[in-house]
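With this grant's support, we have settled on a layout for protein records. A representative record follows, to show the layout.
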Amino acid sequence: MADPKIVKIEIHEYAFELHDLGKDYNGFNLVYEPGATLPSGGHILRILTDAGVVGEYAGGSSTDYATLPRFVDYLIGRSALERERIYTDVKRALRQVARIGMAPVDVALWDLAGKYYDAPIYKLLGGYKESVPCYASTYHGDEQPDGLSSPEAYADFAEQCLEMGYPAFKVHGWGQAPIAQEIANVHAVGQRVGGKMDLMLDPACEYITFGDALKVGWACDEERFFWYEDPYRDGGISQFAHRKLRQLIRTPLLMTEHVRTLEPHIDFAIADATDFVRGDVGYDGITGVIKVAYACEALGIDIEFHGPGPAQRQCMAAVRNTNYYELGLIHPKAPASHNPHLFAGDYSDALDAIDGRGHVPVPQGPGLGVEIDWDWVEKHRTGLVTYP
């Protein structure tokens, strides 16, 4: 039987509102803001074939889809099952634009393959896990009296998550906060729940200087944090700087969220610039992050997948050397940062999505394992682009 050929590609845009959320000082980070309404939106990529099988991916930014015209003609008429060939060809084609735009196509092709073979993606990858353990990943700190506005509030929320069954908790601190406040936050959370759950810190490249990152790293050492992620304003890309940081602190680093494709990830590890390696389905697709996972396994280290979503769960279910699923962003008062209406059924990445062990299930349907709620999408659609 001939392989299904790609005959059409659709990009659906939609809009919705997030409630009780706003932006912080620079307009980049989401923070709790009671009573506020924040306009939001998203994209869905559909790849249609001559066999009637359709691959879908709900994700990607407008920047990702801006590169699609550069290679869409290459995709039309090609076998939808040749993911490796497509990945490597598109990787070359996008080399001058930081390889932005590879991921949505790759994930949609994996979804298509799962539907074609009537199996979830993790089974196609040889996976075996049916659920994955989570860490609670917080919003950035805010200035609300009932929010994450103090070290004590973070410690309270960590304790709440521990009582709910979460085995791990990750702090995203404030934007532009005094370093003394960030250090106090590490100690407050560590002293409240340290030894009872794994703790992580992700400043999201907020700290201004190497010295700031070092001071907070020493606090993480004292509280035995499990990892320290993207600490300061190099943007998470300097191998030399993070090798120096590793020489001066004991807490393991988790880097490479902000580099793309296999080679820079592994260069970071070989340069002794990270301990854990970050893999991002939204940047490198499933093909890309699985390459990173296997390379990490060869080095004897772990990959940690960035962000929540069906694709991340499918990948984690197929990988031995990984520890936690990032459930978030979450907050004691604000809704989760994902779109709660996008998927039909009971799929959720909200605070209460975990079971008693602190796990979430791996979707068992074909492909990504979830179905998009097209009735909701059609009511909220703001645009549709098709190729050809």
Residues 239 and 267 are 8 Å apart (CA to CA). The longest helix spans residues 281-299. The two ends are 25 Å apart (CA to CA).
